[in-house]
Give the backbone structure.
Amino acid sequence: MEKQTKSNTLKKEAMLDALEKTLGVVTAACRKVGIVRSTFYEWYKKDKKFKASVDELNNVALDFAESQLHLRMQSGSDSAIIFYLKTKGKDRGYVERQEVTGKDGDPVQIVGFNYIKPNENNANDKTD
């Protein structure tokens, strides 16, 4: 288990502050604090309190993004409205789906094929 030092505690607090300012972008936050990403992920993996704080910050960033989406929708942004409907309105039919049909709308016919295992003297697998 990692030994909690005053220096580590201060760096973790600085990291949480940096994550808040960068909306959870780990690389940018690490640069601000002067640590490598692997240190962040080690803290995240081993320190339950730090992990809980990071997860809460990620939820705050997501809330912010959703609020910005709602503002765009209120201002009449077609793309924001479409995005919202595609993600939140699926149960009402706002889903893009592709229908695959055969010729003239008939059902797709699946014709048998031969599967050739790789490296089984297949001329197509040879590289020069």
Remarks:
- Residues 119 and 125 are 7 Å apart (CA to CA).
- The mean pLDDT is 88.
- The two ends are 52 Å apart (CA to CA).
- Residues 6-92 form one domain.
